[in-house]
Design a protein that fits this description.
Length: 468
Amino acid sequence: MSAKLLLQGETIAAIATAIVPEQGSIGIVRLSGATALAIAKTLFHAPGRQPWESHRILYGTIRHPQTKKIVDEALLLIMKAPRSYTREDVVEFHCHGGIIPVQEVLQLCVERGARLAGPGEFTLRAFLNGRLDLTQAESVAELVGSRSKAAAAAALAGIEGKLANPIRTARDRCLDILTEIEARIDFEEDLPPLDEGAIITQLEQMVAELSRLLATAGQGELLRSGLKVAIVGRPNVGKSSLLNAWSQSDRAIVTDLPGTTRDVVESELVVKGIPVHVLDTAGIRHTSDRVEMIGVERSHRAAENADFVLLVIDAQAGWTQSDRDIYYLVQDRPLVLVLNKIDLLENPSEAIALAAGSSSIPGDRIVATSAPRNQGIEDLENAILNAVNAGDLQAANLDLAINSRQAAALTRALASLERVLETIGDRLPLDFWTIDLRGAIGALGEITGEEATESLLDRIFSRFCIGK
């Protein structure tokens, strides 16, 4: 969706809710633009003396303007500019859910002069009209797509401006420093000497503050994308039972027969605020069964593509040669060793010590579990989170988290500020200071949108859903 279209003053329309047959009770058609209210008046009949005022909800029917046929019984929400999401006139038809009513209403809006909105165009208009900055706009999309409460909380923090505020403050400070320097270049004889020490202090403070923000990038990506975990091991060690106990469901078939799982079984969990996509794989062993061979091949691929591996062994059998062979296949991945069926042992601690001595896996990466008793599940989750980030994962308690685009721009800004400090240290002329200061100002402006290009906006908002 090109930003140029907004200059034409067109009214846009889109279905703003998910439309699934027999699933949604309400379907919303949203319009934004100068003629939104006029279009609504040609389609919506409000009985009685209901006032067509801003921020009121009217009850009535939607009718075809020519045939007067009733299309739906609905509510109409009016939000006049500038007190709306886009800071334009916005109206919403709240129709009955399903496919037919909302599509008929949308078609009528288009026939009355509205244009179908592109992906994210409502939020793009909110940005271009000063309602949101670019970090807030991105946070809207992240909130819609959040897969955990922690991810939603981080997105809400972005919408509230907790990311934009420090970025904007740093950019303003850079502009102030640039103004001071350029004034000395142009009017050196008329102004007092530049306070070089104060400038260095400000630059060092900004580097520290922006570095702290940049450090949230990895955790933010973890919140948004989640962690892909593969459960691997030889047949009949309890991988499927572990998945069922962990997910508190019966996603996987569990029997006493080895090789029951022939394909990858998937489950979605949330662990301490982190979305976790769990893959229960077929038991890995040499086999002549063609179907089982395909399952083993898929297990190999799942382990290779996973962010993390749970290697499950039978605590009764101990660390076998087959377990060791599988370990060699996955040892390059972040890994936790799971001793399952620990309830069948008289001395579990001895089994854990033996497993630690038989492998190169650290003791804090070895967990004892009993799937039927739901024993050790919390220890397993803690071991995963500790292993992911060396015991320092705080994603569940993040105030905010930057995304990959923001991290790239922030990295450029930090590099520019550090080069300014090097320039000062090398005693180079003031003109050289301004070069990298402008680079930092430009990079910070990209984050909040003060210096966003049309191609950047197209790339960001094309990822939004239509109607948002």
